[in-house]
Amino acid sequence: MNLWQGVEPSQLITLSILVPFIGALLVIATGKIPNLRETVTLTTAVVLFSIVLAITDYTFQGTELRLNVIDIFPGIGLNFVVEPLGVLFALVASFLWIITSIYAIGYMRGHNEENQTRFFCCFALAISSVMAICFSGNLLTLFIFYEVLTLSTYPLVTHAGNDAAKQGGRTYLGILLSTSIAFLLFAVLGTYTLTGTLDFRAGGIFSDTDNKAVLSVLLVLFCYGIGKAAIMPFHRWLPAAMVAPTPVSALLHAVAVVKAGVFSILKVVIYIFGIDNLKELATTDIMLYIGAATILLSSCIAMTKDNLKARLAYSTVSQLSYIVVGALLASSIAAAGSALHIATHAVGKITLFFCAGAIMVASHKKNISDMVGLGRQMPITMAAFAIGAISIIGLPPMAGTWSKWYLTIGALDADKLIIVAVLMISSLLNIAYLLPIPVKAFFNSQNEGEKENSKPWSWSDTKEAPLPMLIAIGITSTGCLALFFYPQPLIDLINLIPGVSTHLNGEG
């Protein structure tokens, strides 16, 4: 049932952006009453998700939703258009905002964090900018809100206020702003100079007569200008941002920031260049192999990290390049795999970060070497970690299986056997740096002397994180399972994206 039937369809776009913005203002107004402030946060998140569901319904019906706000330059303005890829990202972000808010309530209280009102306010502002990115109708609108997202998340990265947080924030802001100004801005200007438009169009906006050398340069500028995709060597901002509280890490890695990066690259490939046109560009393979190198190198670095959040951060760098590689394979089915990976990686990685935060709150442990035997104390959390890890690896019966399957088939379709090898090796590396964590937690004893004489385990031994955190962990780990057995709604949505298909014959 559509709860927003009485609203003009195009105004749903306005509501999707304004509702979290208004929520941020209400969070400030109710900041002195924590229970009311958090009720406002959860209510706003639920309302936003219902709006996105209504937009999704219109998308499946084939109804075009378009909103022109203002003309900034002749023929170029702030405008929004709903298309299936943006709807997919909006569904992921709005749903996970609900879950992350539940988790954050438990975390912020359990960890006795200061400045909680500022945290929830900036979180809502970030989601507002994400919705604008999802439904951006041209490159100018995307660029503006891409920058707004960077600025609105900076206070979250520096939330702790200590020297480490400030240094991490400087790295975060410095890399993301410098790449967007030095590369992305010039890519946007170059695109307009060449085509006279910045609109997103099915099949791309470049013509067959456009200079292929210029287009090749523009592709590199877009790939590196969208720094949130964390392609090496412009990836250091992401590990640096791990000084932030765990709910912020979840926002960065699953709900908003990094997904905004890979979403933007995928959107540029589909609606600016056109998938078929990529095959003719000299730099497509170059950026493809840089993405493949990022997958392997960041996985190798992840194996060296003892700090759990640092290991997960480099894992994210690797997994993001799966999406970039899928986009650059210039294959319809690989692009579908990239789109699906936005969702499957989100539920898997947010589960892992939720578990990392729960471990820190309940046991005050940050390093993997200290987590041996922790499964006895935190069985629910470590079981959920195992589920999230298996999903990231891409093994049945978890969600990550399907996106990696489509990416592999897409690489075969594009006749890129080396990319197939990279995906397989990466999955083995995923096993090497993720699975030992829950295995040692459950099957190794904290003290080497504890063998047969250890007392039988009972629920009285457990010391889990606060209930809101466990509820969030339970929902996302269940999502890893649910998207394996019931991925069809997302696949149907992906098949609506122009030029993208989960079928080798190219038919949706």
UniProtKB/TrEMBL annotation:
Residues 136-429 form the NADH:quinone oxidoreductase/Mrp antiporter transmembrane domain. It is found in: Cell membrane; Membrane. Keywords: Cell membrane, Membrane, Transmembrane, Transmembrane helix. InterPro entries: CPA3_Na-H_Antiporter_D, ND/Mrp_TM, Proton_antipo_N. Its main location: membrane. Residues 76-120 form the NADH-Ubiquinone oxidoreductase (complex I) chain 5 N-terminal domain. The chain crosses the membrane at residues 12-30, 42-60, 80-107, 119-146, 172-192, 213-231, 251-274, 286-304, 320-340, 347-364, 376-396, 417-435, 465-486. It is a multi-pass membrane protein. It holds the Pfam family Proton_antipo_N. Belongs to the CPA3 antiporters (TC 2.A.63) subunit D family. This is Proton-conducting transporter membrane subunit. It comes from Litoribacillus peritrichatus.
